[in-house]
Design brief:
By secondary structure, the chain is an all-alpha fold. It has helices spanning 5-33, 36-52, 54-58, 64-85, 104-118, 122-133, 138-145, 149-176. The radius of gyration is 36 Å and the shape is elongated.
Length: 177
């Protein structure tokens, strides 16, 4: 399609229609659909159809606003019919209880971590137990163990590194067996 005088006239008509009727057309479509995004789609499709029928609109037959509102209403109706024609989706069956996970993996993980804790130094173990198993803050762990908070922070850093190393070693042993 080239840039012909007829095409420029149609585009100018659509721009004028949008400028004059766009807001009221959007408000009407929003009331019909209850959804702003769907209403914008309806307005766009309405203007596209106006562009396709630009010659009829320029002929001055009837009300342009009435034509636009009728097209918008028909589009909304067509969309509603199309949605209604879709098969009903099957809902989840709610009379079955949800599948519960097997807790054996958690038990094994706890055993592995407890065994790894036995292999780190007592100072590191105390800090990890205070912070992670007893849920204490750094200040509370420091008070409980009788050391400064900075010591708790550094011990927890090195304790986690040592624990990771023990666990990595354990994983390597298992994979080589």
């Amino acid at each position: 399609m080239g840039d012909t005088p007829g095409r420029r006239d149609a585009e100018a008509l659509i721009r004028a229609l949008y400028a004059e009727h766009g807001r009221s057309l959007l408000a009407y479509a929003t009331r019909l659909t209850g959804d702003r995004a769907a209403a914008e789609d309806v307005v766009q499709e309405t203007l596209l159809r106006a562009w396709k029928h630009a010659d009829d609109l320029n002929a001055g037959k009837g009300s342009v606003r009435g034509w636009l509102l009728t097209v918008a209403r028909n589009l909304v109706t067509d969309r509603a019919r199309a949605r209604a024609a879709r098969p009903v989706e099957v809902a989840d069956v709610e009379d079955r209880p949800p599948v519960e996970g097997d807790h054996s993996e958690n038990v094994v993980n706890t055993m592995v971590v407890m065994e790894a804790l036995d292999k780190v130094s007592p100072e590191h173990r105390e800090v990890l137990v205070q912070l992670y198993y007893r849920g204490r803050s750094v200040a509370e762990a420091a008070k409980e163990l009788g050391v400064p908070p900075g010591t708790i922070k550094s011990r927890s850093y090195y304790a986690l590194r040592a624990l990771r190393a023990v666990l990595a070693e354990k994983t390597t042993e298992v994979s080589h067996e």
